[in-house]
Task: structure prediction
Amino acid sequence: MIGYLVRRLGGAVLVLFGLSLLLYGLFYLAPSDPAILTCGKGCTPDRLAEVRHAMGVDEPAATQYAHFVRGLVGGRDYPAGPATRHCPAPCLGYSFETDQPVTRLLLDRLPVSASLALGAEVLALTAGIGAGVLSGLHRYRWLDRIVNGLVLAGYAVPVFLVGLLLLLLFCVQLQWLPFPSYVPLTTDPLAWAQNLLLPWVALAVIQTAAYARLTRAGIQETLAEEHIRTARAYGLPERRIIWRRALRGALLPLVTLTAIDLAAVMTSAVLTETMFGLPGVGQLLVGAVNQIDLPVVVGVTLLAGLLIVAANTVADLLYRAVDPRVELR
Amino acid sequence: MRRIAPVVMAGTLLLAAGCDGSGGATSSSAAFDPATCQGGTLAVLNQGGISHLDPARLYTSGGGNIPSLLFRTLTTRNRQPGEAGAKPAPDLATDLGTPSDGARTWTYKLRDGIFFEDGTPITSADIKYGIERSFAPELPGGAPYLRDWLQDAADYQGPYKQPEGIKAIETPDDKTIVFKLRKPEGDFPYLATATQFAPVPKAKDKGVGYEAHPISSGPYMVESYQPKKSLALVRNPHWSGKIDSLRYACPDRIEVTSGLDAAVINQRLVSGAGPDADAVTTDAVVGPEQLAQLGNGGPLDKQVARGEFPATYYLAFNTKKAPFDNEKVREAISYAVNRTSVVNALGGSTVAGPSTTFLPPQKTLGHQPYDYFPAGDNGDPAKAKQALADAGVTNLTIELAHENDDSQGLGPKVAAAVQEALKQAGITVKLTAIDAATYRDVTGKPATQPGLSLQYWGADWPSGGPFLIPIFDGRQIIKAGGNFNLAQYDDPAVNAEIDAINALTDQSQAQARWGALDAKIGKLALTVPLAYEKDVYLFGKNVKNAVPDGWRGTYDLARISVK
Result:
């Protein structure tokens, strides 16, 4: 197990290193100049050159990348007028647009996105597994068709429309909930959940479909296996067969999918965060792309890469825990 | 320069009952008394975050809305509705400044009783230092005018590298500040409304970090600030309404939340649940679903402010590129445009109006009506074809560059409207979408500038100068980039007239001359004016005195009440 973890860790470092190199290659060699937006309207070429120098984007891409790697390990200092500003290790760079270290920005935004992703996953898994089991046990019957239809309808509706409809219904018409605004879990757990309820539902509507379809297929497949027939032949109760044997086998593929979804949603729930005004990582990324705030774009992408790699590792470990036949190499 | 905020989110279209409101309702100011308006908390719901709170880095028109709550400047907009509101007024200074040496020198005296939030008196040295900071490359983003206007300041690198300061700004005593300009500038009192003219105490300057808590000279000071997320303002105990009669400073507290969706902001303002009844927005223009509810005498008509920020949407020709070097071809395109379809593409007649002049219709800019290439409401393909025939051009195919999204009004919708109109005149238009983040960069560099592009120009202050000079002054052509004279038009006679008008300190005289100059240049069809901007903003049902000022077209947070 330890050897496996060490190998995965080494692989993760290599993947992230390659990703960072690719990002620098893409962003810093592309014909976009972050200094132009920072410098503002009416910026003369001389002034632009000064601003480029102050931002450190006038150096060759390779030098900038070397600074970046050094900053990751040992931190960096940035010019800031009368003094320098220190970006402690692991320094992912300094945001041109907000004048803050990217690491701090990410740490500030991550709890919001994690709150959104975790709640939505719990809802989606609950609804998806429930719908999948119902469909799987009543396949090709009216209940299966209704559940399938509902789930697919949810999958087909864009998240911004679901979000708007939820806001109109619960915040405007019924006024049961306030318009969402993020309240940290540690400040007020009840307000945290109350404000995140609609975003969770909006995001879960999409996720539910995938989980329901996977569960349904898994249930059908497992119920057709020989050990289920054997169990039935031995006279085991149907409920026990379904919950102990069929569901366990059916849920195995969900483990991997859920872990990866969780990681992905934490950095890419752009529409949901925008619609509900949640200051998460996705919203940060959109703003950074629009403002050519490259350090932030690089930081968010690396964070996404890190989370996906970590999620894959966790998924493998969970797979091993759920199914002893699986061997980790 | 401010540009129109995103009007439409894709999702809101699905909910919209219609997309073109009508009616002329204006905002309510009932039961408002500045003497008794104090109290309550004003919520500001915004899309875009405040990326910088440093007066050196802000690019505002008239000092901005939120920044003006924190920063008093030498002069400020006078915050009146309508035409009267398009004039500067003294702020920290006792008057609009005393010009001398043919408007090459401007002298200001500071008021008595002006303090920073910590109780320190504001001196002329603080204003000088604030201006010098804006030259530092570490603090970019502010308006560029001072770099050009002040004597020998173009190469100044800011007080961190050059602590000796700018010689062209003199402070003979704590109450006097003198600006020495390299050429006459009659508009200097307008420029002095910019946040770069706000005082900054040198002892409190932390460079880039200053914006975490800028030292206030206005009615409010920062309680907490998270860039692009939130800003909480509380009263500045050392500000007095007796010294600053233009800002009413009604709410006890102002809470700005950023990063919200425009449709959600407007929905919250309409429903007005809880604290949203005391809410406004400074950047979410009303959406189509609310536009459909306006003008029918419904309750929403009492929650809307309609103004006009001076701005023009236009087609810019690069006259150095064929076929746009041919004046007849430019005239043909001018005849062919369908301004009705352009206005519809911008969101309808509630948020835009057709324009045949480069100067928008505000009198303070000197607007003089003209229509040298009358296209009517829907274009005149016959006249366009005739102009093409006169030019000896057949089967004309051109490219039109535009932004790749519609949020700024320069995107595919307006481009398609132009394309369709020109098609009626036999002109084939190929659309070229350019990433909005780099659009100004591409079109502002003569080496990469397309032959024809969609453009927008808004006034940094309500005068003809900042509207016409960057666009038509031949000395403003910048080959290396950041160029706005897209026609690359350089006529010594026009340049001389610009200098002559700049020397005028009588604004009524200057207005007439700017208008005449616009009318003269318009004959050359260097641009095709398409539409001017109208602004419609909602506000919460408890908000009072949400009256748009004539300078910026939006309501002024410094004069709004929620009590």
Chain B is about 20% helix and 15% strand.
